[in-house]
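Batch queue: ligand-bound targets. Current item pairs a single chain with zinc ion. No template structures supplied; prediction is de novo from sequence plus SMILES. Inputs echoed for audit trail.
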Amino acid sequence: MKRPFRFIAAILFLAALAGCSSTRADRDVFFQVSTLNALAGGVYDGETTFTELKRHGDFGIGTFNALDGEMVALDGEFYQIKSDGLAYDVPGIAKTPFSEVTFFEADKTVPLDKPMDMKQLQEYLDTLMPTVNIFYAVRVDGLFDYVKMRSVPSQQKPYMPLSEAVKGQSVFEMRDIKGTVAGFRCPAYAEGFNLPGYHMHFITDGRNRGGHLLDFRIKRGTAELDHAARFSVSLPGDKAFYSAGLTSEGDQGLEKAEK
Ligand SMILES: [Zn+2]
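Prediction returned. Tokens below.
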């Protein structure tokens, strides 16, 4: 009696161990819903709920169905920055046409003790990376002299491409503000399905204002990098995505719309 019991216990133990290790590995995945060129082409409605998205990460950026604002996720809390610049809680039943998330666990943490603008900070972060050929999640907490952000108003059907939709964007500037930058750095070969280089969103310390970052100047703070060597994309199964003309022409509009 004893022997088979021990054997079963050992199997259960090994199964539990395997379960644990796969859970741990999944936390290092850069998970993306749809592709950025589909969003650029006006595919603004997705089927993925935020309840589902939260299973893939506690940190990230993205947008909402009908392109209704900018999404920021930090520490498992998801926020919707609408075109009034204010941050709202996201109901689990809300859906996203494009988002990128991961479980944020810093592989590298560095203090930022001299002022830097957005471009300088990004160049500095590049020097901290062992390679530019993988994905990184980037989190920066600090005191900012200046922050310039945008958000886009909810769109009506038939949807215009992103380069047209962003013409109606609201731009916000804030000064002397504490807050957090959440974003990703994608490798050059991500062109088309994502944006090569950095894509950053911002939210204030009070978690009540924010947006897609256009520029900033940080006084001091802390930067954290999370290396992601695995990449997972959930492609939409709807007609809008299947019939979208996803060409490299759209990518040029993308660069214009996001940077
Ligand atoms: Zn954005």
